[in-house]
């Protein structure tokens, strides 16, 4: 990382003591991210222990771009960034992928709820049957 970029990052992160610039990792993810987009960099947020991707392109004092949902920096980080990069992919495609992902999550929740209700019904069937037989 060149000195000019480091100075700009330091200026942009001033007052955000909870953000630590990550300049390297075992798999060289910060360096590879910089090759992908020289404006991007990785920080570790100690308030909500997670890695985050930031970009100098973002203005208004906020450099945050996205959270990395894994505890380690690896190839998935670069894949996530490329999938979410609005500068290289149409926003319509990104929104469609997010909608599909959310729909899959909703279907999985509905399936689980249905399975849970079915299991409860099966478990309580004998109790209700016995109660009905005793009553009549």
Overall, the morphology is elongated
Strand count, sense and closure of the main sheet?
4 strands, antiparallel
Q: Say how many strands there are.
A: 4
The value of Rg in angstroms is 24 Å
Instruction: Provide the domain count.
Output: 2
How much helicity do the residues have?
A: 40-55%
Mean pLDDT: 89
Q: Could you say which structural class the secondary elements and strand pairing correspond to?
A: alpha+beta
Query: CA-to-CA gap between the ends?
Result: 82 Å
Textual characterization of the structure:
The protein is α+β, with helices and mostly antiparallel strands. It contains four helices and four strands; from the N terminus they run H-E-H-E-E-E-H-H. A hairpin with a 4-residue loop joins strand 2 and strand 3.
Briefly summarize what is shown:
By secondary structure, the chain is α+β, with helices and mostly antiparallel strands.
């Amino acid at each position: 990382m060149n000195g000019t970029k480091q100075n700009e990052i330091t200026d942009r992160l001033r007052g955000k003591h909870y953000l630590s610039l990550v300049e390297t990792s075992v798999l060289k993810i910060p360096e590879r991210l910089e090759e992908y987009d020289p404006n991007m960099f990785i920080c570790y947020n100690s308030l909500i222990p997670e890695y985050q991707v930031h970009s100098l392109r973002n203005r208004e004092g906020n450099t945050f771009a996205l959270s990395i949902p894994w505890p380690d920096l690896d190839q998935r980080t670069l894949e996530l960034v490329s999938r979410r990069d609005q500068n290289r992919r149409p926003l319509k495609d990104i929104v469609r992928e997010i909608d599909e992902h959310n729909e899959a999550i909703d279907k999985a929740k509905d399936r689980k709820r249905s399975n849970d209700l079915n299991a409860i019904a099966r478990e309580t069937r004998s109790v209700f049957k016995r109660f009905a037989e005793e009553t009549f």
